Amino acid sequence: MSAPGTESDTALARRVAETAGELLLTLQRSGLFAGKALGKAGDRTANAFIMEALAHARPDDAVLSEEEKDSAARLATRRVWIVDPLDGTREYGEGRVDWAVHVALTVDGAPVAGAVALPGIPLTLCTGRCPPAPVPADTLRMLVSRTRPAAEAVAVADALGAQLVPMGSAGAKAMAVVRGEADIYLHTGGQFEWDSCAPVAVAIAAGLHVSRVDGSPMAYNRADPYLPDLLICRPELAERILGLTRG
């Protein structure tokens, strides 16, 4: 890895996310683990690498990771990396492709740089070179959890006449909107900051609407990292969807 300070934050996020993804693919293909054991090993392996890489490249920054014990010291730090080493652990353990690696940087609580690696495809999207989302299809498509779709999201889809598209990780769902494979990602089933931070950074860079379901902005590096709801959609759909979620 380059010496500290010689690489942009976006380039670093992308390189760390992609390398973690490569490690996860190697582990997945090794045959040493399967199912839940593979997911557990993947979480630990990717987290260990990401923590080491960020400590080397940005030693003065704080890190909030799903796989690390949280420290209140990060609250006094302007620059905080928020990472999910393996988003979609179940999908990864099952050998599916809808899992992701999230690496994002927040400054004063705002996501300013980030990358979402989708190693199973393979594809990485980041804030530095994110293409505009393609033109939507004739029928709206709404992403929902493949195992536990939230009732609120299903109700909104019904009101919009949208087709439900089941998918695994939050990162995979958000990037499906960025890539034009879907039009709406509405989540109300509970999440944490690491689930959405990198996907939100990339979605904003792509020009999509991003907010809480009440229309308020997504804010990060808070004392309580629980951030339960999220809306990512094409800007022209936001007002209509928020009217339904607020009602």
TrEMBL record:
SUPFAM superfamilies: Carbohydrate phosphatase. Pfam families: Inositol_P. This is 3'(2'),5'-bisphosphate nucleotidase CysQ.
